[in-house]
Amino acid sequence: MLELDIESEVMRGLAELDVETAKGRFSVSLPLRPGSRSKRLVFIPLGVKRITMTLLDAHGRFRLTRLRWVWLTPWFAHDRLARRLANVLPAYRGMSVGRVKRALHRESVARGLSWRQLALAEYTQSFWRACANRHYPYWVEEVEPVRCRAWLAGRALEALKEQPTLSLLLPLDDAIEQVGIEGLRQSLASLQAQSYPRWELCVVHSPALDAQLVGLVAECLGEDPRSRLLEGHQRSLAGLTHQAFVASCGEGVMTFSAGDTLAPAALERVVRAWNDFPASQLFYADQDEIDASGRRLHPCFKPRWNPDLLKGTGYLGRFAVYRRRLLWQLESYRDIGRQCRERLSAEELDHAMALRFLAWTSGHADTAELPVCHLPGVLYHRHVNNRHAGAARSEVTVSLVGEFVARLGKEHDVTVEPGLLPGSARLRWPVAEPAPLVSLLVPTRDGIDILKPCVEAILERTDYRHFELLILDNQSRCPETLAYLEEVARRDSRVRVLRWDQPFNYSAINNFGVRQARGEILGLINNDVEPVDGGWLTEMVSQARRPEIGCVGAKLYYPNDMLQHAGVVLGLGGVAGHVHRFFPRQDAGYCGRLKLVQNLSAVTAACLLVRRAVFEAVGGLNEADLAVAYNDVDLCIKVREAGYRNLWTPHAELYHHESVSRGADDTPEKHARWMREMAYMKRTWGEKLRDDPAYNPNLTLVHEDFSLR
Question: Hey, how many other C-beta atoms are within 10 angstroms of the C-beta on 105?
C-alpha cells in the first residue's frame, strides 16, 4: 500500500510512479487529494531497481509530508482491491467483496489469465483518469470508434422512414483568410465522406472577395450537383447566411465554416435522431477543435438542453441543425444582423439563433415533448484559427441576451450585464416589492466554535434583510452553546431557536423547521457555512422566485479557497457527487462552467433555497429513508420530476467547513446507515442516476474533474 500526503495550493493532479525492475518498467498513477491521505495498492515484484515519482496535471507549490510503503498480506490486499472495484467500477458496483472475488476468478479462467493479472488490471482501471489535455488522442483512437458503432446500431440507414435533405449554409467573408483555400478543401472533403448522402451545400461569398479567390472556391466545389456557389448581396456574415438560407431547400438547416470539418457519421446521426424524436426541432452535438495538421484538441462535451446556461453563453456551439419550418418562425439570420449593431461572428450568430429558439420554446409551453435533441458525440471539428478569430465578445452577448429578454416582455424587469467570462452575460432577476420573507433553517448540536461564526456572518454579511434565522437545536448540551443560543435570539429579532429533542435525522429536523417557518422561501443552511460577501442571498432569492425554477444552489469553498461545491451530478461515485471539487477558486472550470449560471439536476443542501410551495408539493425531505445522506439529492430529483428546473449560481459564494459538526461516517453503524440510504436511492431512482441531463455520457462517473469516460 502506497500512502501519500501532500500539502498544496492546487488540489488536483496525479502522482505517477515509474517502477524499474530487472525485467522492465511499469507505471502506476494515484490521484492527488491534499487534505486527505491518498492510498493505492501496488504490486512490487522482485528485482526492483528504482522507483521515480512525477506529478502530472498539477500546477502550483506543494510539499510532500508523507510517502510511506506498507507491506500487506495477500488476504488483506485482495480484500481492499475487491472493495475498491465494488465502489468505483460500474461492472462491479454494488457487489459484495466475495462476489467481486468470484467474478474475477471466473473471468480470469475464461480469459486464460492469472487471478492477480486480471485483478490488478481492473484495479488500475479504477484509478485511470482520461484527462482531456493528455489522453484525448487515446480516447479518439480507442474509445470513440466503439461508441460510434453503438450509436449507429439498429435499423439500416435505408430503412429509416424519413430521409430528409440537410442543407449546410457556408457563408464566405474575409474570415476565409484565417484557414485559406486548403481549409475549405478539408471542409468539403468531410462533406464528401458523409455516410448519409442526402445533403446540399449552399456557398454564398461576399462581394468583397477577390475574384481569383472566388475562382478557387468554384474549383474546389467541382461538379457535385449538391453544391452551389452564389454571389452575396451583403458583406456581413448574417446577411450572407440569410441569403444561403433562402436559396437552400433542405428540411433541416445548419451553418458551416470553411476550415471546419464534420465527423463521417455526423449527418447520419442527425437523421437517425430525426426519426427517433419527431417532435425535436433542434439537434445539436459535442465538438472539439482541429489544427492544420488534423490533430484534434480541446473537446467540449455538452449537457443536454440547459436554458439558463444558454442565456449566459452560446454553449450549443456550431453543430446545430434546425428544422426549416421553425427557422422561418424564428425570423431570418438577416433580421438578427439588423437587430445587433455589431457585425456578428459565427459563434455570436449561432448564439443569437439559439436564443430565439429558447424564446420560442418559452412561448410554447404546451409542447408535449422537449423540442430539442442532444447527440452525445464529437460530430463537429472547429478549426483552431476560426475559433480564435470568432470568439464571442461580452458587449455583443449582452446585446443579444437583451434582445432575448425583450422578446419575453421582461426588458423592464431583468438587467443584463457582462458575465464572469469573456463573451458571456449575466442576468440579474428582480426581487419583488415587498421582498418575500426568507426562512433560513440551520440545524445544529453544540459546536459553538463553528455555529457562532456561521450565525454572525449571516447576520452581518447579508444585504438582503427580510429574512428570519431559525436555529434548530438538536440536543445541545454544551453550556457555552446554550448560552450563545439564548443571547443571539435575545439580541436579534430575526433569530429564533427551536428545540428538536430527537436522535439526529437531518430530514426530520428540517421538515420540523419548515412547519415552524413563516417564509415564502425556505433556505436549508448548514451550521458550518459563512457568506463571502453580502450579495449571496439576494442572488439566490432572485433566482428562486422565478416560477420555472425549483432548488437553487450556491458556490461553496473550503477554507483554503478550493471548490467544495459547484453542483451535483447524478451517478458520480455511485449515487451522486460534487463536480469540480478541489478546483482553485478562480478556475473557470470545464468549458467555463464554474463561472456560469446553469441548470443542474441537484445541488447540496449545505446552502439551498426553494419556494415553500415547491418544497411542500414534493413532500419535503424524506425522513423515513434518508435520515442523513442523499436527502438533498432526493429532494432535487423530486423537484425536477415535478417539472421545475434546478439551478446553480456562481454569484452566491460561501465558505463551507463540510460536516465538521456531524463528523465522518467512520463507525460500523454509520457505514451501515450510509449503505442503506445508498441502496434506497438506487432502488428509487434507478436509471436516472446513470443519465444526468446536465452532464454528458462521455464523461467519467468515477472522478469529479470532467475527465473522459
Answer: 13
pTM confidence score = 0.88
The closest of 304, 305, 405, 300 to 347, measured between CA atoms, is 300
Which fold does the domain 151-412 belong to in CATH?
A: Spore Coat Polysaccharide Biosynthesis Protein SpsA; Chain A (3.90.550)
Q: Which of 391, 397, 392, 402 is nearest to 418 (CA)?
A: 397
Q: Is 145 exposed, middle or buried (0-12, 13-18, 19+ CB in 10 A)?
A: exposed
Give residue 545's identity as a one-letter amino acid code: R
> DSSP string of 125-186?
HHH--B-HHHHHHHIIIIIHHHHHHHHT-SS-GGG-S----EEEEEEE-GGGGGTHHHHHHH
Q: Is 708 helix (H, G, I), strand (E, B) or coil?
A: strand
The string of pLDDT tens digits covering residues 523-541 is 999 999 999 999 999 999 9
pLDDT in tens, 264-310: 999 999 999 999 999 999 999 999 999 988 999 999 999 999 999 99
Distance (Å, whole) CA 237 – CA 170: 10
Whether 9 contacts 35, CB under 8 Å: no
Strands of the sheet containing 48-56, edge to edge, are 24-31, 14-21, 48-56
> What is 438-689's CATH topology?
Spore Coat Polysaccharide Biosynthesis Protein SpsA; Chain A (3.90.550)
Domain boundaries, the chain: 2-127, 151-412, 438-689
Gap between the Cα atoms of 506 and 640, Å rounded: 21
Number of neighbouring beta carbons within 10 Å of residue 376: 18
